[in-house]
Amino acid sequence: MRHTERTIETFRELFDEIAYDWGFDGELAIYEDPDEGYSFSKTAIFKEDDEYYWSYKTQNAKLTQEVWDKFVAFVQLMKETGKVRTVYMDGVDFAHEAGETDCTIYASTKHALSLASCSDACGVVKCKLIFEEWTHPQKEDLGVNDPKDEKAGVRTILGKLEELGHPVKEEEA
Predict the structure, then answer these.
(1) Fewer CB near the terminus (10 Å): N or C of the chain?
(2) Judging by beta carbons within 10 Å of its beta carbon (0-12, 13-18, 19+), is residue 165 exposed, middle or buried?
């Protein structure tokens, strides 16, 4: 058990420590080690002697079970909602047309087979779609995060945490 006089009781308080109070200004790359917990920059979040802790340089604090659970769910979302998406394409489009002309991508093999007339004969391929940059920024709010809105990704992730049964209290958002 570590000596600490402070407990972080909300996910927002933990996020303040991670992103705001310490001037974090880069991409949040979280490294996960099954035995050691999580680390990024000079921060660690880990379990020791059945207690959960946050540590930054020489400071540390206990985490509540709820905050630990939300952080673990957040890490999962970071993995799942990153810049890479799985998509499906008509096999011939992939082999001969991708990058040369307009092609349609689908959310599943089932959608490709039901919506593309030749997919049954041409086959369906599973691909990874990687976001690199906005080449022409959107001009209206179309329900897509504005690339200049630094908090949009946080709002999206907080919303997805709620969908997964880890609601964030209003004062935490």
Answers:
(1) N
(2) exposed
